[in-house]
Structure of Uroporphyrinogen decarboxylase:
Amino acid sequence: MTTTPAKLMLRALSGEITERPPFWLMRQAGRYLPEYRATRAQAGNFLDLCYNPRLAEEVTLQPLRRYGMDAAILFADILLIPDALGQPLDYLEGEGPVLDPVRSAGELSKLNPENIHKTLEPVYETVSRLSSSIPSDCTLIGFAGAPWTVATYMVEGRGSKDYVNIKKWMYGDPAGFSALMDILVEATIAYLLKQVEAGAEVVQIFDTWAGVLPDDEFRKWVLGPTKRIVEGLRHHHPDLPVIGFPKGVGGNIIDFVEETGVTAVSLDTGTPLDWAARNVQTRVPVQGNLDPILLVQGGAAMENRIAEIINRLKSAPFIFNLGHGIIPQTPPEHVGALSQLIRDGSPS
Ligand SMILES: O=C(O)CCc1c2[nH]c(c1CC(=O)O)Cc1[nH]c(c(CC(=O)O)c1CCC(=O)O)Cc1[nH]c(c(CC(=O)O)c1CCC(=O)O)Cc1[nH]c(c(CCC(=O)O)c1CC(=O)O)C2
């Protein structure tokens, strides 16, 4: 009897050095693909797409059909948690998400943590459908935003440059602010557990704005909540691989890895490769970190950097990815060239 070889992505996450790096790309489904734009138009607005299991499954599968990534990431968004908590949310064309902000402990009563699954149920159905429709060698990743990053949108009411409102609350009323973070920690654990029960084999926690905090606050609002989420998940699923993505935190990534218990960590574009190989990859598998703009540029600049990243990180467990998500201006054929290069070691 032959046993099926374990999936490449899961092997790298378990600490194996694989024959080639598994690869997937943050935001691999999305606006850069014409077939995504067509499905999105069919769905109506962005939230309708996220909550339509058949169409969300379809857009998750689209990049796999073209490029055969080693992992599929559930199509959803980090802001579904505020939506499920009852915070009014809209995505405006050309502007991104807009929320009715929550800015003080007194306003927390506007949130209803009791029944998030009612709103999020279609997402679990998408995961469940994907677990049977993705190719058998492909790994299914579920995800959520980390509490700090999700809170930035909830408090600022939109994407922010300076984080004034959330930082004022955090510095001025840490006890009140921690009540919001507690709500988010609990909701995130519950949300990710449901994704795992529906078939997600790995989860990734996106802390995109972790890098805007001074280090004591980083410990309180990034390390602490992430550690609680990892523990909450492992209580039910002791072997669940969890990938952390604390973007922009520089050397604090070492403490992040040591203290949160994540299985692997995603490196942003600014992380020096040799430093990461010596200080991070010696502790956990790493994922990353091609500049998404090189994927827009393509050609030799992109190909040389891909080769460089692989060379410098291939001697220890490694998953190829970007340092942040694909941007809408990316030519789809450049993603094809990347996929070819990783799979065969030469450009198409
Ligand atoms: O400007 C801002 O601050 C808001 C950014 C924004 C978010 N959702 C959003 C937007 C509007 C937009 O991208 O235009 C709204 C959003 N989320 C998504 C899309 C699809 C796309 O990018 O074309 C879009 C654009 C929606 C559309 O108009 O069709 C999907 C999404 N968000 C996310 C993921 C997870 C992943 O990256 O793989 C995924 C799924 C990717 C997949 O299935 O392949 C995660 C997400 N959403 C978000 C963030 C925060 C940081 C950021 O991206 O700036 C993050 C975490 C991160 O990327 O680091 C917030």
User: Anything to note?
Assistant: Residues 26-31, 40, 46, 60, 73, 75, 77-79, 91, 96-97, 143, 159, 206, 208, 324-325, 328 surround uroporphyrinogen III (CB under 6 Å). The chain has a mean pLDDT of 97. Strands lie at 71-73, 89-92, 96-99, 139-145, 202-207, 242-246, 264-266, 286-290, 318-322. The longest helix spans residues 174-198.
